[in-house]
Amino acid sequence: MTRPRPVAQVAMHLAATLASVVFAGPILIVVVVSLTSTTVLDLSLSPSHWTFLNYRQVLGDPLVPRYILNSVVVGLAVTALTVVIDLLAAFAYAKLRFPGRDLSFGLLLATMMLPFSATLVPVYLIASKLGMVDSYTGLIVPALAGPFGVFMLRQFIRGIPDTLLDAARIDGASYLRIFANIIVPLCYQPMAVLAIFTFVGSWNSFLWPLLIAQSEEMRTLTVGIATTNTQFTQNIGGITAVAVLSLLPMALLFVVFQRYFIRGVLAGAVKA
Fold it and tell me: Minimal CA–CA distance to 153: which of 106, 118, 181, 188?
């Protein structure tokens, strides 16, 4: 491959810088406003005007830490269980042979075309009949698994040579042992990608938690911010402080798993 010309390199760097400013600019503004003590919009970049008063007020509200705890518990539970369930299903669709495999997989993919609003009422009625309303079970169980995760992991597992599985079968390994000792270690990268997508989706979920969590104690952070009238909802600094707190877990998750995320995306592109 020929290296880009200097002019092309400069143009690409400028485009990347401009894109970074466009995407990071609003986040920087939110952080700066959250550090102001006034009730009006103040974009002062001088550190001498910054204060953590808004964060103290927000965290001093007894409901906000509860909202954060609910979001963390639900996000971690949904992420862990979704990765396990989707990986098991992907392994079955990619490497096992059973009647109706291709048909059932096609039907699974077809469900991706259904909007969530189309299944919202039936899912709520089922959850209500099972006594899941206003509970962690109701927030977690309906969000488990999904066709996107099964499809992505299946595409990756299909790239694993069948000779590895055949050799393990000849040695007397069961399908469960093959899954645990061969499939799982080779799928760390796509699992990390799925975990990030799932956690972010669960953390930002609004419609289902709004419907299933009927008490203030069971609301997640996104629902709590939008529905609860507290002392900081009329304060721009307080609102932005809550927004910054809601961004921290996702930013931390990406920083920790960014290596696996990037490699997983690239591996998925190559192995598709």
Answer: 188
Note the pTM of the prediction, 2 decimals: 0.80
| Residue 100 DSSP SS3 | coil
What burial letters (b/e) apply to 81-97, b meaning 16+ CB within 10 Å? bbbeebbbbbbbbbbee
Spatial separation of the C-alpha atoms in residues 58 and 120, rounded to whole Å: 32
Output the pLDDT for position 61.
Answer: 77
pLDDT digits (tens, 9 = 90+) for 84-130: 999 999 999 998 888 988 899 999 989 888 888 888 889 999 999 99
* Domains of the chain as residue ranges with CATH: 62-271 (1.10.3720.10)
Contact 82, 144 (CB under 8 A): yes
What 3-state class would DSSP assign to 52? coil
> What's the distance, CA 254 to chain centroid?
10
